[in-house]
Amino acid sequence: MSEPGEILYEVRNLSKRYGAVVALDDVSMFVRAGEVVGLVGDNGAGKSTLVKCLSGAHQPSSGQVLLEGVERHWHSPHDAIEAGVETLYQDSGLAPHLSVSANVFLGREELKPGILGRMGFLAQKSMDTRAHEDLERVGIAVPASGRSVSQLSGGQRQAVAIGRAVAWASKVIILDEPTNHLGARQAREVLQVMRSAKQQGLGVIFISHTLPHVLEVTDRVVVLRLGRVVRDAPTSEFDAESLLGTITGLNAT
Amino acid sequence: MTQTDTHVAQAAGTQVTEAPSRAKTLFSNQQFLLFLVWVLMVIGFSLINHIFFSVGVAENVLADWAPLVLIALGELVVIIGGGIDLSVGAIVGFSGVISAFTMKSLHGSGVSGPATLVVGIAVCVLVGLLVGLVNSLLINYAKLVPFIATLVTLGACSGLALVFTKGAPVMGGPPEAIKLAPAWLGPFSGPVLVVLLVVAVLWLFVHKARFGRYTFAIGSNSFAARAAGINVKRHIMRIYMLSGLLAGLAGFFFYIRLGSGAPTSGLGNELDAIAAVVIGGAALTGGVGRVSGTVLGALILTTVTSGLIISGVDPQWKRVVVAGLIAIAATLQALRKREGAAA
Ligand SMILES: Nc1ncnc2c1ncn2[C@@H]1O[C@H](COP(=O)(O)OP(=O)(O)OP(=O)(O)O)[C@@H](O)[C@H]1O
Ligand SMILES: [Mg+2]
């Protein structure tokens, strides 16, 4: 585990093109251990694209990704997960036909002990119990472990996705609009979750359009506009108005 | 926490309680409905012609059922994973032909009958695995959609089988194969036991093991599966190779039944397999399906075929009846889905 204050996860001069579309243009940013960084910008600014490059879901067209100062090349999300970087995607992070616990444990299934486990048989009961505990720890809208995700409300799904990310993150946690679909009260719980992740020394990257939340919970804000970083400054330097102005590019300062 | 829990439960108007009672699950259970449909069919056909209710007919039904279940279970796994495999019928014919050529030359060079048959099985299975591998390479790397990828191998395999054989069945295998044929019928014959074993193993791996969990996850949301760290390409390869393997095994079954490797022996089997899977309640959109449903779906199909023949109906009606069954199954599923979405 990195010391608080040390740069934990970083991208340098990252660009990402989708054919002719330049979604990210020479982006550099970082998150320290024990820090919450807000990543904001208008629709289409490139936030989710950056998230996907950070999580290994997409390969950047150019630029570097460094974890604890070491350059890394994620060939797939598997590599990033193994290294302790956990991501909540804006949409479609869950498999709707699977149960709550199957989703929480997806890709990291607990197997039965002994020979059965080596043949790939699942320890379903134990996963159900542990998934419930993990979600309870997060404290938002805990659905029964055995229910299929397709039967959950939008907020409950979001809770499962957050619980999943929080339960497994060991270094960095990236949350792309985690308060989507959540009621005011559940959204507050998510902010609390981020604070406790920070206290545990994780680096948190928080993407949101809800600026009051960003101002409340982050230590630093990175503003993206049309694929470029236009501002990277401590949260204390912003108020609601100036942050909005920086995002839209309409303020004179 | 509990407070929040109840709060949300009330807001959504749902209950957070666990599984419904056993009786309720039994009756809302689609497998149970399928079983009822099958029992009614058997009763109906027996009333039309009492001969239907006999050991001889049961043997025939099971003899048709055995290879169909093999193919359909492979198809089921592919469909749960969000794909489709049109090549299975062609694999049956192609693997049977290649295996027949191999056995013919082994037998000709004096290799013992049993050894020749073992090699014959191995060749069928290997051909199936190979075609499955090609399917997965076309899907994973040439980025073809499964429908097109397996249509390509369907064409290649059925075409090559005809080219190699000039359309005639390949004979000249060991006489032991012919001796096996009668034993190939009957409820407790070798193949039926083999199939029951395959059913049990697949049920375990699809519904109780990580293999199935990954298959459902990929069919449900392949982005989420990859994001969770699953090696989706490797799993797709396994799925199509499994389907090919089972189709190859079915190819050997047909070889024994016919006593030769016929290039057209699996013609149209992919449609029967897909029908069995759909009747068994799986969704072509992926993420849904049960081994027990497919086993029953295949049983219903083969029962209909025999039933029509024995009832004196032109067996060509089979396709029409099967089409009707598919329509009913698909409609039920669409209705259930809508209900689910509304709830
Ligand atoms: N898979 C893709 N193929 C082509 N273009 C894409 C793809 N994904 C994103 N883009 C483009 O890249 C740009 C950045 O999109 P991105 O999703 O990163 O924005 P965002 O900042 O997350 O927006 P939002 O706030 O709406 O979520 C947009 O112009 C978008 O159209
Ligand atoms: Mg986005």
UniProtKB/TrEMBL annotation, chain A:
<dbReference type="InterPro" id="IPR003439">
    <property type="entry name" value="ABC_transporter-like_ATP-bd"/>
</dbReference>
<dbReference type="InterPro" id="IPR050107">
    <property type="entry name" value="ABC_carbohydrate_import_ATPase"/>
</dbReference>
<dbReference type="Pfam" id="PF00005">
    <property type="entry name" value="ABC_tran"/>
</dbReference>
<feature type="domain" description="ABC transporter">
    <location>
        <begin position="9"/>
        <end position="251"/>
    </location>
</feature>
<keyword id="KW-0067">ATP-binding</keyword>
<dbReference type="GO" id="GO:0016887">
    <property type="term" value="F:ATP hydrolysis activity"/>
</dbReference>
<dbReference type="GO" id="GO:0005524">
    <property type="term" value="F:ATP binding"/>
</dbReference>
<dbReference type="InterPro" id="IPR017871">
    <property type="entry name" value="ABC_transporter-like_CS"/>
</dbReference>
<dbReference type="InterPro" id="IPR027417">
    <property type="entry name" value="P-loop_NTPase"/>
</dbReference>
<protein>
    <submittedName>
        <fullName>Unannotated protein</fullName>
    </submittedName>
</protein>
<dbReference type="InterPro" id="IPR003593">
    <property type="entry name" value="AAA+_ATPase"/>
</dbReference>
<keyword id="KW-0547">Nucleotide-binding</keyword>
Automatic annotation (TrEMBL), chain B:
<keyword id="KW-0472">Membrane</keyword>
<dbReference type="Pfam" id="PF02653">
    <property type="entry name" value="BPD_transp_2"/>
</dbReference>
<keyword id="KW-0812">Transmembrane</keyword>
<dbReference type="InterPro" id="IPR001851">
    <property type="entry name" value="ABC_transp_permease"/>
</dbReference>
<feature type="transmembrane region" description="Helical">
    <location>
        <begin position="86"/>
        <end position="103"/>
    </location>
</feature>
<feature type="transmembrane region" description="Helical">
    <location>
        <begin position="144"/>
        <end position="164"/>
    </location>
</feature>
<keyword id="KW-1003">Cell membrane</keyword>
<feature type="transmembrane region" description="Helical">
    <location>
        <begin position="295"/>
        <end position="313"/>
    </location>
</feature>
<feature type="transmembrane region" description="Helical">
    <location>
        <begin position="65"/>
        <end position="81"/>
    </location>
</feature>
<feature type="transmembrane region" description="Helical">
    <location>
        <begin position="115"/>
        <end position="137"/>
    </location>
</feature>
<dbReference type="GO" id="GO:0022857">
    <property type="term" value="F:transmembrane transporter activity"/>
</dbReference>
<feature type="transmembrane region" description="Helical">
    <location>
        <begin position="32"/>
        <end position="53"/>
    </location>
</feature>
<feature type="transmembrane region" description="Helical">
    <location>
        <begin position="184"/>
        <end position="206"/>
    </location>
</feature>
<keyword id="KW-1133">Transmembrane helix</keyword>
<protein>
    <submittedName>
        <fullName>Unannotated protein</fullName>
    </submittedName>
</protein>
<feature type="transmembrane region" description="Helical">
    <location>
        <begin position="239"/>
        <end position="259"/>
    </location>
</feature>
<dbReference type="GO" id="GO:0005886">
    <property type="term" value="C:plasma membrane"/>
</dbReference>
